């Protein structure tokens, strides 16, 4: 990797992956190595010799990827072009001089090359042998210099046109393939793919002063806003559509006589569990298989049943959160008793931190597949399998009264069933909550978690309205569009709720912004979040008091997006009830 490319990649890591200290989490490094084709064993082996265990500096990680000698390239590079360029130039001038016998360019040739040219004229050496040797050397050095340009082709279509390297996967693409993927030609100024890669392009609009925005709202208020908040009632029988009833579930706690105190536990649990360790006297850890914001997943062997299971280590898993996981698990098991569609929660225990053990679905998540092969879900047959799997899973969750709340491609597992057929299953219910229609006025707040990924939030989630299974239908529809188009709603940490909502409005081509009936139900202060009548678009707050301004965000009309939405409706066709809900969601 040359110095310029390395600095560009380093800049991307610093801005998108690294923390404020320029450090990368070890898990994110492992995930990156796996995404470029490495196995978990190879990734852990590469990172084993790093100086830090939990975090790695960006420079150290690039040294692991490119080798430590990459740091010396910028210092050595200026000296190389002198000899590498002058020598082929001199030889190119010697060759026509021997053939034409006299050329004025002799004066430009280096003085060290003159003696070999004079020898054939003096008759001291066979002119033919000198000519053949010079031509052979010339050809070798010329091929060594031009080989990368001659051999390199577009990694997508294998053409030999002018290529551009994509810093996201370090592959080379021609302009037509670049436009096909990003929707715009490559540019030398920074990395515009972050903007081009949005599912819907967001544009900036009018700048509002705070008083101007409030005055406009006062001139055109929304009747019956703010709404009355419904009273919270006690839990009733209607809150349990599965009729499974309450239960007492035993949870084991490991008591170690050598550990007392928070600091002692912190030092001991830092690098656990490690391969070969046995947890709860039953589960032997093999290796890590994935990581999220709050969990780390490991492949393990259940020594009692001699089967493979998935052990998840949870960060900050309180008794209340574990109770939620157990409640969701019991609801799901009631509608999927054989575990055909969802993984089953086998056990939960504490060993300095909270652990859960689930049945294992062997396969890969759809996001990983898309990173390995961007064209996999361009095949509508493959995309339809994802849609069918999501619809079947959501239909069962609706029966259980559970909202997944994190419908993204990372949680769609591409697996095989008992008959060997490819099926897609939903996993990771750490953000799941109950359908608000069963809560008797007790709607959960984002402050307690359960929000899932911001890029898949339905509009009602952004308005803090009661959450139903329609939010999951929206999330699955967005995930399908992202898999098919290769674009994403959310691209970087700077992407805000306003950006997500502007894209959501673009997906349904709502040129008037949010419907007034939705804003009327929102408990938020809509006067500082959205533009006033006649069009309700999100506004982003700029600056701080007393110099507060607001910039409205809207979307650029794109006929291609409309085609994607129609495809999403086509894909959910196998489940008519979900298709109807999706259609209502998309047109409000």
Q: What features would you describe in this structure?
A:
Among the domains are: 3-76, Orthogonal Bundle (Recoverin, domain 1), CATH 1.10.238; 80-151, no CATH class; 163-196, no CATH class; 248-359, Phosphorylase Kinase, domain 1 (2-Layer Sandwich), CATH 3.30.200; 364-428 and 467-488 and 559-588, Transferase(Phosphotransferase), domain 1 (Orthogonal Bundle), CATH 1.10.510.10. Helix content is 40%, strand content 16%. Helix 2 (26-35) crosses helix 3 (40-47), helix 6 crosses helix 8 and helix 15 (380-400) runs antiparallel to helix 17. It has 21 helices and 19 strands. It is globular. It is of the alpha+beta class and 588 residues long. GO terms for molecular function: ATP binding; protein serine/threonine kinase activity. Residues 283-555 form the Protein kinase domain. Keywords: ATP-binding, Kinase, Nucleotide-binding, Serine/threonine-protein kinase, Transferase. InterPro entries: Kinase-like_dom_sf (IPR011009), Prot_kinase_dom (IPR000719), Ser_Thr_dual-spec_kinase (IPR050494).
What distinguishing features does this structure have?
7-stranded mixed β-sheet; single chain; Recoverin, domain 1; 21 helices; 588 residues; disordered C terminus; alpha+beta; 3-stranded antiparallel β-sheet
